[in-house]
Amino acid sequence: MAQQPPETPVFHYPNAQKDVFIYTITSASITGAFEPVWYVNTKWDQFPTPEIMQVITDRAIKYIIVHNDTMTADEQAAFKQRLAVPTVAGKRKLDQSIGTSDVYKVQ
User: Is residue 24 helix, strand or coil?
Assistant: First the structure.
């Protein structure tokens, strides 16, 4: 990860760092932010599903960082069960673990 350019797209799960997908608009007369429709319409709490992995691929997101320490034991168990689905398992590869977080490279 340290060797990646700073603009490398990364998705954090659970989405504690939601601002990854919030775009900021600033001009002389307007300052604001918006969440793109594709972001709002995605059920991120169900990650990873084949559909969400397709959204991630379509958006050229290169890495997924899973923050295990922010999930309860039940949430971790449900996540691992969804992660094992073959159509999801083939789209990511565990790249490294950093502390309590796992970094997956999107295939």
Answer: strand
Token pair in block for residue 54: 């397709």
Q: Where are the alpha helices (DSSP H) in the chain?
A: 37-40, 50-58, 73-83, 86-89
Name the token pair of 73: 């034991």
pLDDT attached to residue 30:
55
Q: What is the pLDDT of residues 37-65, one digit of tens each?
A: 777 788 888 888 889 889 888 888 888 88
What 3-state DSSP class applies to 102? strand
Going by C-beta distance under 8 Å and a sequence separation of 6 or more, which residues neighbour residue 94? 102, 103, 104
